[in-house]
Structure formats: C-alpha cells, structure tokens
Known about the structure:
With 888 residues, the protein is of the alpha+beta class. The protein is built from 22 helices and 49 strands.
Amino acid sequence: xxxxxxxxxxxxxxxxxxxxxxxxxxxxxxxxxxxxxxxxxxxxxxxxxxxxxxxxxxxxxxxxxxxxxxxxxxxxxxxxxxxxxxxxxxxxxxxxxxxxxxxxxxxxxxxxxxxxxxxxxxxxxxxxxxxxxxxxxxxxxxxxxxxxxxxxxxxxxxxxxxxxxxxxxxxxxxxxxxxxxxxxxxxxxxxxxxxxxxxxxxxxxxxxxxxxxxxxxxxxxxxxxxxxxxxxxxxxxxxxxxxxxxxxxxxxxxxxxxxxxxxxxxxxxxxxxxxxxxxxxxxxxxxxxxxxxxxxxxxxxxxxxxxxxxxxxxxxxxxxxxxxxxxxxxxxxxxxxxxxxxxxxxxxxxxxxxxxxxxxxxxxxxxxxxxxxxxxxxxxxxxxxxxxxxxxxxxxxxxxxxxxxxxxxxxxxxxxxxxxxxxxxxxxxxxxxxxxxxxxxxxxxxxxxxxxxxxxxxxxxxxxxxxxxxxxxxxxxxxxxxxxxxxxxxxxxxxxxxxxxxxxxxxxxxxxxxxxxxxxxxxxxxxxxxxxxxxxxxxxxxxxxxxxxxxxxxxxxxxxxxxxxxxxxxxxxxxxxxxxxxxxxxxxxxxxxxxxxxxxxxxxxxxxxxxxxxxxxxxxxxxxxxxxxxxxxxxxxxxxxxxxxxxxxxxxxxxxxxxxxxxxxxxxxxxxxxxxxxxxxxxxxxxxxxxxxxxxxxxxxxxxxxxxxxxxxxxxxxxxxxxxxxxxxxxxxxxxxxxxxxxxxxxxxxxxxxxxxxxxxxxxxxxxxxxxxxxxxxxxxxxxxxxxxxxxxxxxxxxxxxxxxxxxxxxxxxxxxxxxxxxxxxxxxxxxxxxxxxxxxxxxxxxxxxxxxxxxxxxxxxxxxxxxxxxxxxxxxxxxxxxxxxxx
Length: 888
C-alpha cells in the first residue's frame, strides 16, 4: 500500500481503501464530556475519564490483538454469518470484503461490501459537538444482489463499565459490582462502587448502550452479559448467539458479570437495492434521566443527520480559525487537521488515545500553556480569563502544580503525588502571555490578580511540609488566614527570578526532575540545564521590556519576594543558593500578606542586569570548540555535549533554545545551524533528529538514552523540538533553513507509506519514519504559531497588526498568489500575497499593499503595520481584504 489515505476535498475529508491493513491506525472522536478512539474495524475505546470507560481501555498493541470492539453481526436465513464491522474469526472475512473508509472533522465512516452475501454495510460513528455524552453509531445495510435477502441483525457492544485501573487489578472483583438494568432499547449498567484499595467510593456513573432501527423499533432480544452472548465455547469474534442462532436464556444470571449489549433486532427482508438502518447509542452519564433523554434526541435518522451536520460545522469552524490557501493543496488540507489539535488536546489531555497508554488523564503544566498558543491565535478574547486562572497553579517558590483539573483554576500537585519539579515550567507562561499581549495590546492583564497554589511540597518539592493538612486546601494563605492574591506580573517574577538563583555547581539552573525532555530525569542532584538557562535569561529581559511597555510605574509584590530582587555576587554559586534558601524558608508555610511598592525603573534595571549576566555566563563557559553550545550537565557534574572520544554528542534542544533566546550571537547562530545540518539532519528520513547517537546508556542523565536510538526522546524526529528549532531559525533570519525544518514535518506526515497515520502532526517519527502518538501533542500549537507568525508573518505587535512575510517559494508552487484567513482585533481578515515570479533567495520585500482596495503606505519593504484602531473602524460584519505584492 503506497498511501494510507487521500484527501477528497477542501473540507479536509479523506478516503482510504487500505486503512484496514494498518492495525495501528486510530481516529479521535469527542466532545467535552466523552472521548473515543476508533479504528477501521471499529476497535478502540469510549470513556469520560480515567475511572469511567464504557469500552475496555486500549493501547496501540491492543488495536490488533483485542477481541472487544463495536461489532455488528448479520445472520442470513441460509445460516451464513457476517460481521458488518469486519471483526470475526474463521469466517473468511478479510478475503471476502471490499473495504473503504471515509473520515472528516470529526466523523468516521467504514464501508464493507461482501458480494458472496450480496450485502454492503456502511457504519458511521461520531460524537455530537453539542456536548451529549454519547457516541452515535449508524449502521446501514444494503442489498447489492438481485435477490431478496432475509437476515437477523445483531449489534454487539461489550461493556467494560469501570476504571482503567481495573483492567488487570481486580478485574474479576470489579465485575461483581456490575448492576444491569434491561431497557426496552438496550442495556444500562451502573456499578455499585468505584473499587480502589486506597479508598472505595460510591459509583455515580451510568453506562448505556441502546439501539433502534430506522422505524424506531426496539431490539427483539437482548443479551446483557458476555456469557449469554458468547456461550461456553464462543467468544466475541465467534459468538454462539449469532453462529448458533441462540436466543438469550431469561433465567440466566445477569448481575455481577462481564456486561454486554447484544441487541438482536427482528428478522428483516431486504429487496434488491433496498437498505435498512440501525442506530446504536453508546454513552456514559451520571444522571439516569439523561439515558432516556439521549435516546429521544437521537432515535431517528433525521435527528442523527441533523446532529452530524452540526458536528461537521462545529469542527470545520474550529479548523477554519486560521485557513491557509497555498500552491500546495494537500498542505492546506493537512493543516486543517493540525489546527484542531490544540482543541483536541484540551478535551483529551495527554492521555485517552491508544498511543498515550502511559497517561491517567489531564494535561500537564507545559501542555496547558503551549495549547494556549493556538487558542490565543484563534480567539484571544476567550483566553483572557483562562490565562489569569492558569496562574493560580504557581507556587510561591516559583514551582507549580503539574496537572490541570477539568475546571478553570483547578490544579493537582502531581497525578501520582510524587514530589518532583520540571525546571522548564517557569518558561512557558511568559511566552504565551507575550503572544497574548502582542495580539491584543491588553497590558492591563499584568495587573490582574490570581491566588497561588500551596500544598505539602515546599522548597521546590525538596521538602515535605509535615504540618500541612489536606483540609488546609490548595491556596496559599496569608497570616490573616485569607487566601493571598498577587498580580500576574508578580507570578511571572517569582517563576523567573527564583530560577536565576536556583543554580547548580556550574552556576546554571538546576535540572531538577527534568526539563522539556522528560527523559532527562536521572540527574536531580547535580544536573543542570544550560539550554533552559538560555530561556530564563531571555525571559528576564522580556519581562523588563513588558513592564516598560505596560506603563506600570510601581509594581506591587509581596514583601517576602523583595529578597529575589536583591543583589549578591552572581559568580558565587553559594551566595545565590543561600539567598534562595532564605526566601524559601520565609514563604514555605505561608506569607505575611503585606505588599511593597517597587519602582518599575529599578525593577527593569534589576531584571536586565540578571538577564545580561546569565547570557554572558553561558557564552563564556559553554561554547564548545565543536561549534555549538553544551546544553546539560549530568549527575556527576560532567558536560553532556561535545566530542567524547570518537562520538559527537549534540542535542537539538540546545540549538533551538540558544537561537530562540538570543544567547547565541550572529556568528554562533550560523555555526550552530551548520553543525545541526551536519550532525542532526537525517537524509534518509528528511528531518532533524532530537540528538546524535550517544552510543550508550546515560544513567547519570536520564531514561531517554535507554530507549532504542531513533525512538521517542532518544534521537527520534521529535515534532515539538523540530518546530521550535524552525521558530528559532526564522527568528534569527535563517528563513530557508527554517522552512526546511518546518516543512519536513509535513512531508514526513504526508508520506503515509512510511508514516502510517491519518492527517495530523504526531508527537514524533521513529527510525522507520512511522508517526507515533497522533493528535495529542503541543507541537501542533507551535506549528500553527510558526507558520502564521513567522512564515506568513501575520501577527500582532502590541495590539497592532504586523505583516512581515518570510514565505518560501515552495508555497507558491503552481500559483502566483497565496493567502490566509484569520481573525484579528475582532475583524475577519483575508490576506493575499501576490508574487509575479518565484525565485529562491529573492526575499519577500513588500512592493505595495492595499486594504479593501485602498492603497496602504509602504515605508518599510520588510514589514507592514496596520494600527488596531484602523481595523476596528471597519464593519465587523464584513471580511477585510488585505492584498500585498511581493518582489519578484
């Protein structure tokens, strides 16, 4: 098979005739209340959270091996049995069926045609965008023969109905908790409790599978357990209920068993060319009234069709928030899928798809802020409150809660309650806020107030506060007993200033539990991250600039935090550590609640001084003779990068952050790019690897180097870092190289003969070029950010619209004009770039520009600024059209 799929049209819908032969393929369906994964043969799972799975939880390997699936059986009056979903055993299914698949935003349809039986099945699955906690499965059977066909249809949905933790742990015991109610239209299961040895809880979740035919007819027989459906000698792929035409025994015990929704509909006869449709509703709710309400809402074909149209319209609207029209049609269509990924991750978190089998739900701190990049670009108005609420996860010691709850401002210390800190977490909030400020000009957000997170982890999780009690809550209290609130600016200051002093023996920021690369997790005592020291240096300087732009004259900060503005000998590791330890001791168990006014001019000077010192310290100490920076120290206090014997050790993260931060000077930036292309670019696959092959395990640095080289954090083509490297290259003026890095990810993904994935940007590509961990990756937000603000150069600058294109000739392939649509300043914009002829190296000088046909003054050929107030004078009901002519 050369291609997994081909796009059908500009809606980004796609089709495949061979997806069933790629057993690792899966597709996401979901809304804010229920989430699904689904495969070409309808394997996958359905859940509302870690403790609430309707179908059995699956990982990638389960997609090929597990018998449990959404199945639909047909038994003809001649005794022939067929799985309309393609899941059967010993029935010649694969050889006899002609398979095809279509999918779009976000719906999934599989068609199977079996000429021997004379039947065709079309099975459509989607989850309503309107929020109902249900997956809808519409099964249409069509007679493709010339004769009448009489058959019995049977929907077969095994109901797991419990926590993912029970998959192995207490699997049988938790089946004893199952309580089944037979509904006229199906099966409703409500376990008596949520079984957890750390503390059992009364269960509130109700799991249901209901079915109706196109005439709203109910099933004739219901098999409520797997025992009654499969029989003693059968299983889910060869059930006795179908193969032996057995009706359920009404006397069979149904409570405390593995539950099942075997829904056998009355026999039907199809004339030649006729069709019959069945609607299966699979869902999870905590209100029994919802079950009948959902049935009534989706029990006819017209209602299902209406819901499908709404769902398509919703997701199309999300994907069109930023719409690209280039000379590469497949790129534009593929980007529609990338553009919905931040929204998918907001719903799914970092878990709940088969490749993310390590997760227990929820997003991490880094994920939260990076997903907001895409949300800011699509709709900054709705992000204001979210951003302020997010700062409530910061601790007063500059660390933060690592897991984000479902509700705004809800945070959890750690999903496994392990005391650990990622040293890079202080970087991301400021980068996201900077984007928001540029898009909106809303500098008032810096003065908004938010509480601080507080728990038993203090001194950046090095110490447990034995006096802390869970009843104390998770808000930092002042001595008055009231929750303390500080400005957004104060939160940013503590995150970045604490890290200036939180240094190891080489005077770089301590690595702690890990940084961006979670695999660098075994150097907690002596490890240091030079790569992210670059970014903290950048952030301190950026904070200074934002304070100046904001017009803030005096900054209110808690009196204890004033210590972080103090000056010691920055060259003295011990002096810096001592200052930080004193600050931790003063704030560990609460603070006074008093605030002090700091003159903004002195605050700016303090921040810039620290930023300059950090940058110079890195330049002086860590530039290697090999022509790049060392980015890390391991747990023995030794440099990680550079030439070790005959092996050159180089890491893409160090390249990316030294470029993005500006720590690398112009000469160094060019040399870094040259060496990245020499050591990290993989000609065979066509992408930048995360690191060179270190040739051995690194137990003094992290688990990553115990992975096989070329996979995950050990040398894969890791989308996230590849995009940030591209962003850094554009930022430093290496536009051709930036496009090479950025477009390589699209080319890897779209080469489905190797990547074996549906359209999306996966987390990484392994040594074979296979895309891994589809859909749920923060690299999607960074891709959107880089494409929009760097490649097309359409971005905000203090609330005004700045257009600074760096377009590659490849985007003009076969056309003289390309464009994009997006919203800015509350106005829909359609921006067209004209380029009479295309030559690489010709640059992107702006020759002329117009707004709604009226010429704009072009005073700088590299960029164009349209004041926000000018855009807001335009009618909000009309799309503003901007046309820019570039040099030939």
